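Weekly modeling sync, notes
Attendees: S.R. (lead), two postdocs, one rotation student

Agenda item 3: backlog of single-chain predictions. S.R. asked that every request posted to the team notebook include the full sequence so nobody has to chase files. The rotation student volunteered to paste the first one in as an example of the format we agreed on. Action items at the bottom.

Example entry:
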Amino acid sequence: MSKAEILSQLPTLPLSERREILESLLALEDRELTAAHQAWIDEAVASGPATPATADDWKAALERGLAGGKTIS
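Predicted structure, as returned to the notebook:
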């Protein structure tokens, strides 16, 4: 069945069936997002221990922001 056929049939289904289809689609999306989030977590863990920003890091970031992305000399 093509996507167009599926979409044309949705309005003919009872509300309970449309909700069941929606829940199934959302579950599929959640699994994909969960996999992406796990990949981000794995990458962060593999990068080693966290190194907190120093006061100089924050000052430099503030200066860059105030300069609109331009480097301040």
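Discussion: group reviewed the output briefly. Residues 45 and 69 are 30 Å apart (CA to CA).
Action items: rotation student to repeat for the remaining queue; S.R. to check formatting next week.
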